[in-house]
Each structure stands twice: as C-alpha cells, then as structure tokens.
Amino acid sequence: MSMPTSSCRFPMAAHPRLSAMRRPAAFPSNTVSSATIMWAAFIEPTQQIRAFGVKLKHSANRAMIEGKRVVLVDDSIVRGTTSLKIVQMIREAGAKEVHIRVASPMIFFPDFYGIDTPDADKLLANQYADVEAMAKYIGADSLAFLSINGLYRAVGGEDRNPARPQFTDHYFTGDYPTRLLDKNGESMGNKISVLASNG
User: Fold this and answer.
1) Which residues, listed in sequence order, are joined to residue 70 by a DSSP beta bridge?
2) What's the number of domains the chain is made of?
3) What is the CATH number of the domain that holds 85?
4) Among 63-72, 99-108, 168-177, whose mean pLDDT is lowest?
5) Cα 69 to Cα 3: distance, rounded to the nearest angstrom
6) Surface-to-core class of residue 3, CB atoms within 10 Å of its CB (0-12 exposed, 13-18 middle, 19+ buried)
7) I need a labelling partner for 79 at 20 to 30 A (CA). Which of 51, 54, 61, 86 fits?
8) Rounded to an integer, what distance in angstroms lies between the CA atom of residue 96 and that of residue 58?
9) Residue at 173 is within a domain
10) pTM for this model (two decimals)
11) From edge to edge, which strands make up the β-sheet containing 6-9?
12) Does some domain include residue 117?
C-alpha cells in the first residue's frame, strides 16, 4: 500500500492505534466523525439494527476524503458490520482507495466471560478462506491484522508463551483459561465439583 493521504480511527477505542501509526509520517486524520455513543454494533441481535446503528453513529467528512487514499484503523473486527458500512460510506464520499488496518489479530472464537460475541460461525474470520476474501466482502482495497505475537509485543514486550499464555487471548487462539462447562453441556454436579476443587 502506498502512503495514504488521509486516515481515520473507528471506533473511539482505535484512537491510540491511529496515533501510533501516524507517528512516522505526517498525514491528516479525522476523515470520519463519530458520535459519542457507548455502543458496539456486533452485540445487536439483528443485522438491520446493526447496520442502522453504524449509520447513526458515523458520518464522513467529504472535504477531507474526496479523491484521496484513505486508511481506516479499527481496534478489531467481529462480524464485519461496522467495517462494511464505513467503507461504503467512505467510498460514497469520493475516496480513491480505502484500506483497513486492524490493531488486533483475527477473531476466530466467541467469548463466554461477559462480552456478548456471536457464535463462531457468525464471526467474519470464520466465514472467508483468507484475508483477501474478507477485504473483498468488506469492500476494502486491502485489509491487514496485527499478528498474535505482534499484539503480545505491543502490550508485554515478549512473544506469546503457548504453554502459559501471559494474557487471556481465547478470542484469537481458542485457548480458553477455564473449561466451558455450559457450552460443553457438562452436568451441574460436574460444575460443583470444579468449584469445590478450585477452593
């Protein structure tokens, strides 16, 4: 990808990632404005609601986009709903190219510890054979993710230890820190035994 002429983070959580990416080179940002709404598209129950929410939350700055190569920096991609709609919006505002850089690895596995992520087959990374196919679905000229070791180096300075992961990374690796009793259909007796054995 050649040097972009404009850039944007979405959502707000991606702002530190964009700041880090822009440091080596001077190119403008804030091509997309985001309403200050504490909400994530992927948790909504239907695609219609998710798509409407993205449209409600974001708007494009045509004056900064038209005729330019735009890089969108996201913190993660779950279903791909937000990415698809944002890319469409940027293209409609006249962008010459649209590239997406994601500051996390691909999400292959759902979460069972409080974040309402979908079943594995609903995750974008499981629906396409490779990154190029994902980019085509989203409508981006290119798409790239941070590697798992890149993430570990960014937050801890060392590569992931497969035997004893330094962080909970089950979204990316499937290496859950506990047995998934409800998901695996284990009996209540087994659950109580596990709780008792854990003190």
Assistant:
1) 6, 98
2) 1
3) 3.40.50.2020
4) 63-72
5) 8
6) exposed
7) 61
8) 20
9) no
10) 0.70
11) 6-9, 69-74, 97-102, 142-145
12) yes
